[in-house]
Every structure is written in C-alpha cells, then in structure tokens.
Write a structure and sequence with these properties.
Elements lengths: L1 E5 L4 E5 L7 E6 L2 E5 L5 E7 L1 H4 L20
Antiparallel strand pairs: 1-2, 2-5, 3-4, 4-5
Length: 72
C-alpha cells in the first residue's frame, strides 16, 4: 500500500494494490474509489485533501510489514 500526497493538485491517493484500475466511482464529493476488472477496490483518491483531512500527522498502528518513509 502506498499513500501519496500531491501538493500541486491538493490530492491524496491511497494505492491499495498494484492491480490496474478499470473503473472509478465517486462515492462522495471529491472522493473516488478505483476498482480493478474484478470489482475489487485498488485505490482511493481524495481531492482537496488538505481541507478534508489533517495531513500534519499520520499514525500507523500494528502494521504487520515494513514502513518506508520518504521525505520530499
């Protein structure tokens, strides 16, 4: 899973899978779910993320894998 914030568009994308997206559905204003060919969710796109989310902190609890932090 990858979480990417794009400041130029103020959008946050949560990449849940490496599978390709074949369909996108808006579930709320500016919140879109991406689905693969089998109807499984592969990503979440949030527009105007800095308004909708507190981007100053990210808490990870009991994550069973490696956490990689990339500062830009």
């Amino acid at each position: 899973m990858k979480i990417n914030y794009y400041s130029d568009t103020d959008s946050l994308y949560i990449d849940l899978s490496s599978r390709a997206s074949t369909e996108t559905r808006e579930i709320s204003s500016g919140v879109n779910l991406d689905y693969d060919k089998d109807g499984e969710i592969v990503g979440i796109d949030i527009d105007n993320a800095s308004i909708k989310l507190d981007l100053k902190e990210l808490f990870l609890n009991h994550v069973p894998g490696m956490v990689h932090i990339q500062q830009v």
